[in-house]
Amino acid sequence: MDKKVQVGLLFSFYRNMLTDRQNECVDLYYNEDLSLSEISEHLGITRQGVRDNIKRAEQSMYDIEQRLGLASKFLRIQEKLDNIDDIIREIEQSPNVRYLSDDIKHKINDILTIISDINEGEQ
């Protein structure tokens, strides 16, 4: 996984565990795509101070993830939900779908709705 994507994922989980300054620096650097110099000007601290805050924040998030594993668990769950969704789509496209009872078809739609609700909740 690309470092920018990985840090972005960790930041979405652990941003509240960072200091306010670290939070601000990481957000501006990774989400707003500002340079260290631009962040330095914006926050009124040195470029090195910005870099140090970002590096400390990254290390903190990696350490927290190592202990808690929330982002990894989220990715595994998302992958399993995608697999379930794919299997249901295959069932729906199968020529044998006409042999399924209406009850089974409704349950399949219920499962798709639940998956959709879960995916919407993460955004």
The CATH superfamily of the largest domain is identified as Winged helix-like DNA-binding domain superfamily/Winged helix DNA-binding domain
Tell me the number of strands: 0
Structural class from helices and strands? mainly alpha
CATH fold title of the largest domain: Arc Repressor Mutant, subunit A
List segments where confidence is low: pLDDT < 50 over at least 5 consecutive residues. none
User: For this entry, what is the oligomeric state of its chains?
Assistant: single chain
CATH class categorisation of the largest domain: Mainly Alpha
Strand content: under 5%
Return the string of H and E elements.
HHHHHH
Rg over CA atoms, rounded to whole Å, is: 21 Å
CATH architecture of the largest domain: Orthogonal Bundle
Helical proportion, percent range = over 70%
